[in-house]
C-alpha cells in the first residue's frame, strides 16, 4: 500500500497497460465461484471489479483508503453473517473471492500486482473444492495460462498479446512432462488430500433408506448418472439387469423403511447357492452418501470393505462419499437363503394394523382360494395385468389407506406403487415378501462400452420367500408395463409425461453427443479423478515395477523428472543451435550427395561445393548447382520464400536421379 | 542467382590483365578486389616475378593515372609527398606534388626505405590526404597504393612493423609462373612492351560507383556469424601470437564483399570470405613458433577446422 498519494512515482509502479491483465486475472479466477457463492456477494464482487475497470478506462484515481476500508468491512461482515463464521471452506473461499475483487482497488505498485497474481494462483486451487469436472479443469488450465502470461507481462514489458500468450503456452507445455510424471508417480494417499467438511455431501442424489409414494418420483426425473458398469465379459439380458440396493421391510402405512445397518448385522449370514453362470464387472459408483453398493442381483463375490447383510444388501463400511470403483461377480440365477430364519420371515410378514381393509380382504380371498404361495403371487400379478392399471410418473395422491386407494381407486402409479401394493397383498396373504429398491436396466454407451445407469433407471420391485426356492424376485411393474423392464422408462411412459430432457432423446446426433460427452467424463473419472493408490499400483505393476512402495516411487519420480529436465535442456540447446529450414534442406541434400559418393566438407561453401560436384560428378552438377544457388540466396542473401520449395524439389530430383542411376 | 550488369566490365579487366600477366588470375582478382574495397595492396615476392607489371597493368586497364616510386634507404619523406619551393616570379612558395599525388601509386621495394619515409607514405595511405606546412591537400580519388617488398630476410631492408602492415588491406604473393605460362612468356617476349597497347576498360569516374556497389553487397547474419567465428578462432588459436583486430575484421568483410561483387553476386558467401582470408590475414598474424608471418597454408588449415552451420 502507498504511504501517501503524493509519493513520487517509482520505477516499481504499474503501467496502465498492465492493469487489464490483472483485472482479467481477477475475473478469471473468481468467475466459476459464482455458482455457489451467495448472490449478494457475487453482485458485490462483480460491481467492485466493474468499478475498477471503469476507473482504468477513465484513467481516474483509485478511491480513498477510507472508502475501501468501509467496503471491506461491510463485505467481511456480510460474509460472517451469511456463513456464521469466517473459517471453513465456504466462508474462507468467499473471503478470498472478495479480497481478490478488492485488491485491484489498491493496486499501485508491482508488489500489489504480484499479490494479485499469487492470490489468483491460490484461488485456482479452491475451485477443486467444488468441482473436478472436465470444464472446470479446462477453465483452470486457461486461467493458469492467463496468470503465467500476466507474470510474463509484468516482468517482460510491453509485447504483443499474442506473443505473450504464446510464450506462456510454451512454458506450460514444457511443464506437461513433469505434470504427467508427478501425476503418475507421486505416492498417492487414500481419499482427498484435505478433509472436506460434512456439508460437502449434502447435495448428493440417489436412493434413500426409505420409500414412500413419490420419493422415487424425483429421482426418476433426473438424468444424472448413478453409476457406470464395465463388464469383463458379456453382459446379461437387459431385463435381468436388476441392480440391488436397499431392502425395505418395515411398512407403516405410508412409508417403507430399510432396517438400520446396526440391526441388520444381527441376522444370519446369507447362504447363496450359485447356479454356475457368473458375470464379472466393475461398478464406478457416484457418491450418494449412503452405504449401499448396487451390485447386480445377486452378488457372489464382493469387493473388500463391504459385506452382504442378512437381507442380501451389499453395504460398504463407510457411506460412499467419493466416486469409487467396486469389483463384483454376480450370478443372476443364484438361489438365496433357502433356509431362512424365523425372525426374518416374521419380519417379512408384518403389516400395520387396521389399514387398507379392502386389500386385506382381497388377500384373504386369494389365500382361501389358492394353496401355494406361487399361485397367490401369480394371482396378484394377474390382477395387476387384468384390471385397468396404468403406468405413469404422475399418479394421483393417495389417502390414508394408500394401498386400498391405489388398488381400487386410482389404479395408476409406477414401480414403487406396484411393488408396495404387491408386497402388501403378499404379506396379507401370508407369503413372506419385501420391497427391494435399486436400479433396473441401463444403457450401453457405444463410445466406450460402459453400461451407464442413470437416476432415471431407479426402480423398486418385490421379493417373496418360497420354501424350496428361497427369495424369488417378482417385479409387479413388469406385469403392468413390460416395456419398462425391456426397453427402459422412456418407452413405458405415455408420451405426455414429463421426463428430463436428456432421458427422452429423439435426435440421434444429440444422443451421440451425449454418449461422447459421458464417455469423456467417464474416462476422466476413471483415469484422472479415480487415480487412487490402487489404480496407481495397477499402473506401476503394468509398467513392470514390482512391489511399488513410496521409496522407489520417489526414486523413479526424481529420476524421471531429472530425465525430463535433461531432455528439455537438450531440446532447448538443440533449438538454439538448430538450423533454419533452408539449412536443414541443404543438409539433407548434402547427405543425399554423400550417399552418392561425394561428400561436402564441413567448411565448404555451397557454390564451391557445387563447382566441385560439377567437376567430379558432372551428372550431378546441374541439380547441385541449382540447389546451391537457392540455398545461398535463402541463407546468405535475400531469398524468396518459394526458393525453399525449389530447394526441396532439388532433393526430390536428386532422389529420382539416384533411383535411375543405381 | 542474381548477377550485376557490371560483371562484364570487371570480367573484361581480368581477361585483359590475364593476357599480360600470365597464369596469375587469382592474384589479379585479389588485386582488383583490393582496389574495389578501397584498400591498398602489398605484394611480397622476389624481384622479377611481375609485381610492377601487375600494378602497371591494373592502372592502365582502369584508365587511372599511374606513378611509381622506387624506395631506397636514403629517401626522405619529401621525396614521396612533394616539396614547396619559392617561386620568385610570384614571390610565394609553390607546392610541387610528389609521386604520391597519383591515382595508382606503385611503391616499389617499400621495405628498403627508412621507417621515417615508410610512415610518411603509410599515413598518407590511411588518411587519403597529406598535410605539409600547415596545409592539407587531398590525394586524388581513387587512390590506390600497390607496394611491393622483397622478402624481409634479405639484407638492407627495414621490415614494416605490424601497425604499418595493418594499413594494407591485403598482402599477396605472386610466386613463380607455372611451366606453360613461363614458356608463353619466353616465346612472346617481355610483357611490358604490350602495356602501351592496352586500352582502358573504363574511365576513372566509373570506378567510384563500382566501389560503392561493392560495399553494398549484402552480408547476411549467417555470414557475419561465420566471419566472426573465423576472427574469434584466430584469437583463440595457440598458433598465433595475436588474433585478428576489429580493423582486420572490417577489412575482411570489405574484401569479401568486393570479391563477391567481382563474382557478380549480390550477397557474400562463405566462399568469398575463405577466398580473401589468406590475403587479408597472413600479414596480420604472426606465428608463435617461427616468428614469421602466417602462411596461406596456415589459414587454409584454419578454415578447414570451422564447419559451416
Characterization of the model:
The complex is a heterodimer of chains A (662) and B (309). In chain A, 51% of the residues lie in helices and 12% in strands. With 662 residues, chain A is of the alpha+beta class. Chain A has 3 domains: 16-158, no CATH class; 210-492, no CATH class; 581-661, no CATH class. A 6-stranded antiparallel β-sheet of chain A has the order 1-4-3-14-17-18. Chain A has a 6-stranded antiparallel β-sheet with strand order 7-10-6-2-16-15, with no helix packed on it. In chain A, helix 2 (39-58) runs parallel beside helix 4, helix 12 (373-386) packs antiparallel against helix 14 (415-428) and helix 21 packs antiparallel against helix 23. Chain B has 309 residues and is an alpha/beta fold. In chain B, the strands form 3 sheets. Chain B has a 5-stranded parallel β-sheet with strand order 2-5-8-1-9. In chain B, a hairpin with a 4-residue loop joins strand 3 and strand 4. The two termini of chain B are 21 Å apart. The A-B interface holds A 579, 583, 601-608, 629, 632-633, 635-638 and B 1-2, 218-220, 222-223, 265-271, 274, 303-309.
Could you outline the blueprint of secondary structure elements for this entry?
The complex is a heterodimer of chains A (662) and B (309).
Chain A lengths: L18 H12 L8 H20 L6 H19 L5 H14 L7 H17 L7 H23 L4 H25 L24 E2 L3 H6 L4 E7 L10 E10 L4 E3 L2 H4 L7 E2 L5 E7 L13 E3 L4 E3 L5 E3 L7 E7 L4 E2 L5 H6 L9 H13 L3 H14 L3 E2 L10 H9 L1 E2 L1 H14 L4 E8 L2 E2 L6 E4 L3 E9 L3 E5 L1 H5 L1 H5 L2 H4 L15 H22 L3 H10 L7 H28 L3 H15 L10 H11 L1 H19 L5 H20 L1
Parallel strand pairs in A: 12-13
Antiparallel strand pairs in A: 1-4, 2-6, 2-16, 3-4, 3-14, 5-11, 6-10, 7-10, 8-9, 14-17, 15-16, 17-18
Helix pairs in contact in A: 1-2, 1-5, 1-6, 2-4, 3-4, 4-5, 5-6, 6-7, 7-20, 11-14, 12-14, 13-14, 21-23, 21-24, 22-23, 23-24
Chain B lengths: L6 H14 L4 H12 L3 E5 L6 H11 L4 E5 L6 H5 E6 L4 E6 L6 E5 L6 H13 L1 E4 L2 E4 L5 E6 L12 H4 L2 E5 L6 H10 L15 H12 L5 H16 L9 H17 L7 H12 L14 H9 L5
Parallel strand pairs in B: 1-8, 1-9, 2-5, 5-8
Antiparallel strand pairs in B: 3-4, 6-7
Amino acid at each position: 500500500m502507498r504511504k501517501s498519494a503524493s509519493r513520487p512515482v517509482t520505477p516499481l509502479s504499474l503501467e496502465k497497460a498492465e492493469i487489464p491483465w490483472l483485472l482479467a486475472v481477477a475475473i478469471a479466477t473468481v468467475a466459476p465461484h459464482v455458482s455457489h457463492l451467495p448472490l449478494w456477494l457475487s453482485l458485490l464482487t462483480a460491481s467492485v471489479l466493474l468499478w475498477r475497470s471503469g476507473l482504468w478506462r477513465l484513467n481516474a484515481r483509485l478511491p480513498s483508503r477510507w472508502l475501501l476500508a468501509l467496503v471491506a468491512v461491510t463485505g467481511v461482515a456480510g460474509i460472517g453473517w451469511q456463513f456464521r463464521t469466517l473459517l471453513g471452506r465456504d466462508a474462507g473461499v468467499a473471503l478470498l473471492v472478495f479480497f481478490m475483487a478488492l485488491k485491484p482497488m489498491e493496486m499501485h505498485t508491482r508488489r500489489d500486482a504480484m499479490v494479485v497474481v499469487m492470490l489468483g494462483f491460490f484461488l485456482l486451487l479452491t475451485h477443486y473444492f467444488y468441482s473436478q469436472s472436465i470444464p472446470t479443469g479446462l477453465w483452470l488450465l486457461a486461467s493458469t495460462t492467463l496468470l503465467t502470461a500476466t507474470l510474463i507481462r509484468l516482468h517482460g514489458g510491453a509485447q504483443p498479446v499474442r506473443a505473450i500468450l504464446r510464450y506462456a503456452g510454451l512454458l506450460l507445455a514444457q511443464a506437461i512432462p513433469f505434470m504427467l510424471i508427478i501425476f503418475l508417480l507421486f505416492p498417492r494417499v487414500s481419499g482427498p488430500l484435505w478433509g472436506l467438511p460434512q456439508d460437502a455431501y449434502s447435495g448428493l442424489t440417489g436412493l434413500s433408506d426409505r420409500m414412500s409414494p413419490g420419493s422415487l418420483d424425483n429421482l426418476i426425473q433426473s438424468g444424472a448418472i448413478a453409476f457406470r458398469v464395465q463388464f469383463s465379459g458379456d453382459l446379461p439380458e437387459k431385463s435381468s439387469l436388476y441392480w440391488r440396493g436397499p431392502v425395505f421391510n418395515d411398512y407403516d402405512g405410508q412409508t417403507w423403511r430399510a432396517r438400520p445397518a446396526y440391526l441388520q448385522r444381527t441376522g444370519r449370514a446369507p447362504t447363496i447357492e450359485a447356479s454356475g453362470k457368473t458375470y464379472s464387472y466393475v461398478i464406478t459408483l457416484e457418491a450418494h452418501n449412503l452405504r449401499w453398493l448396487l451390485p447386480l442381483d445377486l452378488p457372489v463375490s464382493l469387493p473388500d470393505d463391504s459385506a452382504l447383510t442378512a437381507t442380501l444388501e451389499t453395504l460398504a463400511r463407510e457411506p460412499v462419499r467419493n466416486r469409487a470403483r467396486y469389483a463384483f461377480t454376480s450370478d443372476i440365477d443364484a438361489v438365496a437363503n433357502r433356509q431362512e430364519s424365523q425372525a426374518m420371515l416374521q419380519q417379512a410378514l408384518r403389516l400395520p394394523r387396521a389399514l387398507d381393509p379392502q386389500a386385506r380382504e382381497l388377500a384373504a380371498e386369494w389365500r382361501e382360494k389358492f394353496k401355494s404361495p406361487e399361485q397367490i403371487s401369480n394371482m396378484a400379478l394377474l390382477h395387476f395385468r387384468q384390471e385397468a392399471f396404468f403406468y405413469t410418473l404422475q399418479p394421483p395422491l393417495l389417502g390414508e389407506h394408500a394401498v386400498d386407494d391405489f388398488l381400487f381407486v386410482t389404479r395408476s402409479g409406477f414401480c414403487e406403487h406396484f411393488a408396495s401394493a404387491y408386497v402388501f397383498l403378499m404379506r396379507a396373504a401370508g407369503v413372506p415378501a419385501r420391497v427391494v429398491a435399486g436400479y433396473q436396466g441401463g444403457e450401453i454407451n457405444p463410445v466406450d462400452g460402459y453400461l451407464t445407469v442413470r437416476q432415471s433407471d431407479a426402480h423398486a420391485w418385490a421379493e417373496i420367500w418360497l420354501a424350496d426356492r428361497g427369495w424369488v424376485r417378482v417385479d409387479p411393474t413388469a406385469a403392468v408395463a413390460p416395456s419398462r423392464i425391456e426397453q427402459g422408462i422412456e418407452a413405458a411412459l405415455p408420451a405426455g409425461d414429463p421426463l428430463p430432457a436428456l432421458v427422452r432423446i429423439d435426435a440421434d446426433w444429440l444422443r451421440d453427443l451425449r454418449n461422447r460427452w459421458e464417455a469423456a467424463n467417464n474416462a476422466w473419472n476413471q483415469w484422472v479423478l479415480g487415480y487412487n493408490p490402487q489404480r496407481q499400483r495397477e499402473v506401476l505393476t503394468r509398467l513392470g515395477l514390482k512391489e511399488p512402495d513410496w521409496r522407489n516411487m520417489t526414486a523413479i519420480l526424481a529420476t524421471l523428472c531429472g530425465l525430463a529436465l535433461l531432455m528439455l535442456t537438450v531440446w532447448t540447446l538443440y533449438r538454439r543451435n538448430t538450423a533454419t529450414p533452408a539449412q536443414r534442406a541443404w543438409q539433407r541434400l548434402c547427405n543425399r550427395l554423400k550417399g552418392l559418393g561425394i561428400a561436402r566438407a564441413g567448411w565448404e561453401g555451397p557454390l564451391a561445393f557445387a563447382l566441385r560436384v560439377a567437376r567430379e560428378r558432372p551428372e550431378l552438377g546441374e541439380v547441385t548447382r541449382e540447389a546451391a544457388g537457392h540455398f545461398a540466396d535463402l541463407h546468405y542473401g535475400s531469398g524468396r520464400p518459394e526458393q525453399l520449395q525449389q530447394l526441396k524439389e532439388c532433393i526430390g530430383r536428386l532422389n529420382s536421379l539416384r533411383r535411375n542411376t543405381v | 542467382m542474381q548477377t550485376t550488369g557490371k560483371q562484364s566490365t570487371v570480367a573484361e579487366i581480368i581477361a585483359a590483365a590475364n593476357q599480360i600477366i600470365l597464369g596469375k588470375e587469382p592474384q589479379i582478382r585479389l588485386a582488383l578486389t583490393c582496389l574495389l574495397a578501397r584498400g591498398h595492396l602489398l605484394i611480397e615476392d622476389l624481384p622479377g616475378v611481375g609485381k610492377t607489371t601487375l600494378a602497371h597493368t591494373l592502372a592502365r586497364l582502369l584508365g587511372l593515372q599511374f606513378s611509381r616510386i622506387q624506395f631506397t634507404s636514403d629517401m626522405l619523406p619529401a621525396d614521396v609527398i612533394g616539396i614547396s619551393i619559392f617561386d620568385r616570379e610570384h614571390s610565394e612558395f609553390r607546392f610541387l606534388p610528389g609521386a604520391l599525388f597519383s591515382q595508382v601509386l606503385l611503391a616499389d621495394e617499400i621495405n628498403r626505405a627508412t621507417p621515417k619515409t615508410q610512415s610518411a607514405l603509410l599515413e598518407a595511405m590511411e588518411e587519403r590526404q597529406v598535410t605539409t606546412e600547415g596545409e592539407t591537400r587531398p590525394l586524388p580519388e581513387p587512390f590506390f597504393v600497390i607496394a611491393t617488398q622483397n622478402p624481409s630476410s634479405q639484407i638492407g631492408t627495414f621490415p614494416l612493423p605490424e601497425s604499418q602492415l595493418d594499413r594494407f588491406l591485403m598482402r599477396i604473393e605472386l610466386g613463380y609462373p607455372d611451366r606453360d605460362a613461363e614458356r608463353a612468356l619466353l616465346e612472346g617476349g617481355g610483357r611490358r612492351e604490350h602495356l602501351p597497347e592496352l586500352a582502358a576498360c573504363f574511365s576513372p569516374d566509373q570506378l567510384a560507383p563500382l566501389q560503392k556497389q561493392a560495399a553494398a553487397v549484402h552480408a547476411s547474419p549467417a555470414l557475419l556469424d561465420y566471419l566472426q567465428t573465423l576472427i574469434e578462432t584466430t584469437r583463440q588459436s595457440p598458433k598465433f601470437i595475436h588474433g585478428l583486430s576489429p580493423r582486420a575484421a572490417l577489412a575482411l568483410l570489405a574484401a569479401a564483399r568486393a570479391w563477391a561483387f567481382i563474382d557478380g553476386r549480390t550477397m557474400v558467401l562463405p566462399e568469398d570470405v575463405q577466398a580473401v582470408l589468406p590475403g587479408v590475414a597472413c600479414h596480420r598474424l604472426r606465428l608463435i613458433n617461427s616468428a614469421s608471418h602466417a602462411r596461406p597454408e596456415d589459414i587454409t588449415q584454419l578454415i578447414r577446422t570451422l564447419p559451416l552451420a
